[in-house]
Amino acid sequence: MNHLLVENKDGVALLTVNRPKVLNALNEEVLKELRSALAALEEDSGVQVVVLTGAGEKAFVAGADIAAMANMTPSAALGFAREGQQVLLTIERMRKPVIAAVNGFALGGGLELALACDFIYASEKARFGFPEVTLGIMPGFGGTQNLSRLIGPKRASELVYSGRMIDAGKAHEWGLVNDVLPAAELLDSAEKTARQIAANGSLGVAAAKDALVSGLNMSKEDGFRYESTLFATLFATDDQKEGMAAFLDKRKPDFKNK
Ligand code: CO8
Question: What structural domains does the chain harbor?
């Protein structure tokens, strides 16, 4: 891989987009690498949770690569947007949670990437925005859909139509990010939460992610039905027996993820 770094410790994989000279902008090669790295992490039994971040001091991901897009034909742009959407769908369909640790600019396609993750922690230096309209285009990587579901259509319209950036504090106030941390503490905090998730029964976490993500596209009644079906399937697992036996025995559970 040319543009990604992957480091695995204690069941938590740190996946870093590594093109700091162009603020980690996404070109087709990065998108392809992201898709295959995420697929590999999903299959890796030594990984329970992924933390996604950007290399360098300045950016998480400052969007799609403008130099690469500048001369695209409509059909190339379609292929590029679809490749990007496949990355987002991969994250949403993974059984393992993916936490975005936004260390700087998360703009355009970079914000869309963060929005596809299960939740976002931000450093105090983080900046969020959709500058696409300043380039004569619009978000094309799921941003209009995911942002307005998350922070509501009014705030989403303001951000998308103006192209302006908001800081981490405003993003927190609007519910875009779960927590804001000093830059030096961002990765430690994300990894600490990731390790706490990794210590839980991974089948339960995966089923909960499935219910949360799938439920967004269902009626409440269908969502309830789906949730109860997933809940019931966990009673066929060793982890359910171990988790409840450990509670009753007043000891820590030893989950085997089966
Ligand atoms: N693409 C390509 N290069 C970039 C990008 C980018 N998105 N962002 C920054 N760079 C490059 C700069 O050109 C510069 O290169 P060089 O040193 O060779 O001149 C280097 O990174 C450092 O950037 P700056 O000097 O501009 O740094 P500043 O601190 O002055 O400014 C900003 C930081 C404000 C983040 C500024 O770089 C900027 O505005 N960047 C562009 C942000 C943007 O418009 N992003 C949206 C792109 S469009 C998009 O994402 C559409 C997604 C649609 C779906 C596609 C599927 C993936």
Answer: 4-198 (3.90.226.10), 202-249 (1.10.12)
